[in-house]
Design brief:
The protein is mainly beta.
């Protein structure tokens, strides 16, 4: 009896409570370069900044939101696989996948100005204040000093007490870290203080990837947040569309499902 009671108490505790799953509503669609293998994305001063991957096709670019046209671009050497990006002061910082190095660009010209080194793989970057948050495909997010680019901390990400793997593109949104889960249709909402996933965003049905040339690779990836106008943008690798979405709370999703008789 005591054992059963203990299990019930654990199941009802906040740590083991079901993680809410948010839905979405498409607010607007914008064109996106279907040749862009999106690895990093952020919004700044009316433009999107995007990094693209694949050897021989990696770049960092400034993109007009409404037209999707590239207005400025810098290509990486053919053997370098570009990854996530973030802006800090007058610089743009970019990771590479397996080269154990990152590049620092002049934000205004997109010309590289220096390199920096790090161990392991590089996947994605975002920023809050003077701290950068970096993913490397593991459940551990690295915290970097934005000026020195040295690691100063680690956030171990868990959901229902289990480590979350394949953390990919990152964005800081209203005090939470949003992270694409690579090769899934979900974005994790992470509490940076604890590393706990406090919500999922389910984006299944946003785009029919089966109609893309390489559906196994052309997966959801890319989150950008316009804090001033509170706009959330998402896209994927080689997707023809960038979506502005509004999150639908779990309760509203359940009510909609009940109305449909599900």
């Amino acid at each position: 009896m005591l054992a059963v009671l203990s299990i019930l108490l654990l199941a009802s505790s906040p740590l083991y409570a079901a993680i809410p799953v948010y839905g979405f509503k498409v607010v607007h669609r914008y064109p996106h370069d279907s040749n862009a293998f999106t690895e990093g994305l952020f919004y700044r001063d009316g433009f999107l900044y995007e990094s693209t991957g694949m050897e021989g096709a990696s770049s960092v670019r400034k993109v007009a939101l409404r037209s999707g046209k590239v207005v400025q671009q810098s290509w990486l050497p053919p053997k370098i696989f570009g990854e996530g990006i973030v802006a800090w002061k007058d610089r743009l910082i970019q990771l590479t996948w397996r080269q154990h190095m990152g590049l620092v660009y002049d934000l205004h010209t997109l010309k590289p100005v220096r390199l920096f080194r790090y161990p392991g793989e590089g996947w994605a970057l975002t920023r809050h204040g003077d701290r950068l948050y970096m993913s490397d495909g593991t459940p551990n997010l690295r915290v970097l000093d934005a000026d020195t680019l040295r690691q100063i901390g680690t956030i171990h990400v868990t959901a229902d007490g289990q480590p979350v793997h394949n953390l990919n593109e990152l964005e800081w949104v209203d005090g939470q870290l949003f992270a694409n889960i690579w090769q899934s249709t979900r974005i994790a909402r992470i509490d940076p203080a604890t590393g706990h996933v406090v919500g999922w965003i389910e984006l299944k049905g946003l785009l029919d990837v089966s109609k893309l040339p390489n559906p196994e690779d052309d997966v959801l990836n890319g989150i950008a947040w316009d804090a001033e106008h509170r706009r959330l943008f998402v896209t994927g690798k080689c997707w023809p569309t960038l979506f502005q979405i509004r999150l639908v709370p779990p309760r509203q999703r359940r009510v909609a499902a009940l109305r449909l008789g599900r």
